[in-house]
């Protein structure tokens, strides 16, 4: 990567983090034995909705799972000014969910896949 990850916009980190997060959730659900697409989609909402992402992030923080650098990444993304507001969720919840996605994106782009896996295992209960 020609650009330093630390210089990447928080929302851009969240953009890639959202994709990585979604892959982990989908793989988890498929390995769980769910095979119908409609069922997969319904179950995925338990992990990928902004409300649930915010709740998982709160659990990560409350259990002291994240280190200071990771918390800083979350806060930077949470505090990033957004030009549009989400339709189905309040802005505070949306920003916290964005913080989780940005953290996953940051860890992924820095090659810290073991940490991404640890965070996703925490969230997915594994």
Descriptive keywords:
single chain, 126 residues, mainly alpha, Ribonuclease iii, N-terminal Endonuclease Domain, Chain A, 71% helix, 0% strand, globular
What does this structure look like?
This protein is mainly alpha-helical and 126 residues long. The chain is built from 6 helices and no strands. Helix content is 71%, strand content 0%. It has helices at residues 10-31, 37-48, 50-62, 68-78, 91-109, 113-124. The mean pLDDT is 93. Helix 1 (10-31) crosses helix 5 (91-109), helix 2 (37-48) packs across helix 3 and helix 4 crosses helix 5. It has one domain: Ribonuclease iii, N-terminal Endonuclease Domain, Chain A.
What is the secondary structure topology, with strand pairs?
Elements: H1 10-31, H2 37-48, H3 50-62, H4 68-78, H5 91-109, H6 113-124
Helix pairs in contact: 1-2, 1-5, 2-3, 3-5, 4-5
Tell me how many strands there are: 0
SSE ordering: HHHHHH
Can you give the helix content as a percent range?
Answer: over 70%
Architecture, according to CATH?
Orthogonal Bundle
The biggest sheet, with number of strands, parallel, antiparallel or mixed sense and barrel status, is: none
* Poorly predicted ranges: none
- Number of helical regions: 6
Report how far apart the termini are: 31 Å
How large, in whole angstroms, is the Cα Rg? 14 Å
Task: Give the class-level CATH name.
Answer: Mainly Alpha
Mean pLDDT: 93
Class computed from helices, strands and strand pairing:
mainly alpha
If you consult CATH, what is the topology?
Ribonuclease iii, N-terminal Endonuclease Domain, Chain A
CATH superfamily: Ribonuclease III domain
């Amino acid at each position: 990567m020609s650009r330093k990850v630390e210089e990447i916009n928080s929302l851009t980190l969240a953009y890639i983090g959202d994709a990585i997060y979604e892959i982990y959730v989908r793989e988890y659900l498929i390995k769980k034995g769910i095979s119908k697409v409609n069922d997969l989609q319904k179950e995925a909402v338990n992990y990928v909705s902004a409300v649930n992402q915010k709740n998982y992030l709160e659990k990560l923080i409350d259990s002291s799972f994240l280190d200071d650098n990771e918390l800083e990444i979350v806060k930077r993304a949470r505090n990033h000014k957004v030009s549009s507001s989400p339709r189905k969720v309040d802005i505070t919840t949306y920003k916290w969910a964005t913080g989780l996605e940005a953290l996953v994106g940051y860890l992924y782009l820095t090659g810290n896949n073991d940490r991404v896996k640890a965070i996703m295992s925490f969230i997915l209960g594994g």
